[in-house]
Amino acid sequence: VVSGGASDGGGAGAGEFSVTVLGCSGSYPGAGAPSTGYLVRHGATAVWLDAGAGTFAELQRHVEVADLTAVVLTHAHVDHWADLAQLRTVLRYFRPDLAGLAVYGTAATHDLAAHLVGGTLDDAFAWTTITADSAVVTGSLRWSFSLTDHPVETLAVRADTPDDRSFGFSADTGPGWSPVGLGPGLDLFLCEASLDDADADIVAHLTGRQAGAGARAAGVGRLVITHVLPGLDGEVHRGDAEHAFGAPVALAAPGATYPI
Ligand SMILES: [Zn+2]
Ligand SMILES: [Zn+2]
User: Fold this and answer.
1) Which of 86, 119, 168, 178 has the fewest CB atoms within 10 Å distance of its CB?
2) CB under 8 Å to 151, separation ≥6 — which residues?
């Protein structure tokens, strides 16, 4: 894990592919711990992947709003998109020259976000509704999706570079989904591990053990677990994941950057 990234202020160099954790607190923010959000960068391409509360503040440590290529939102649960409303404020009232930024999300996410800001997102964003069958290109990254096991339409995501490096993110899911659904050869996989073993299977989320077993079945290169619920000991989840995965596993932390 390389913390902070090597490119503050200058944008990633050509060909550099990385994921930075903006927030990773499961389901709601913890003390000093934003909800879910990541910055996915490849060269000059910068994508804000999920926009949970607190992640817009963290995003701006790493990239200028003007340099964002797109926003990708995995599902309608508020811990994955609340700060889109804050970005809309910037584009609507302070930087109208940046209005029309590409945003990709599910139909329900669009409707909830539009409602939150008073009716429309069209004054700030160019919204595209996505489903599990969508194929999206943002700058130099190609995105594909897989429907997970979660109470609302939720899309796990995969991003591929032109030179065939790949990143996957489970979004939120229960054990009824497998990362095999994202296709083979994931170099880096960020997988939710919300629950401890005592709570396995009571809600549509994964334990560390389930995250590790799924990643092993999918043959991913490196596994990072995330979305641990506030109050639980992520190190225990990491250890469970590592045991099931059969190789070292990292626990996501705000500010950490993972080169791919
Ligand atoms: Zn969540
Ligand atoms: Zn969710």
Assistant:
1) 119
2) 204
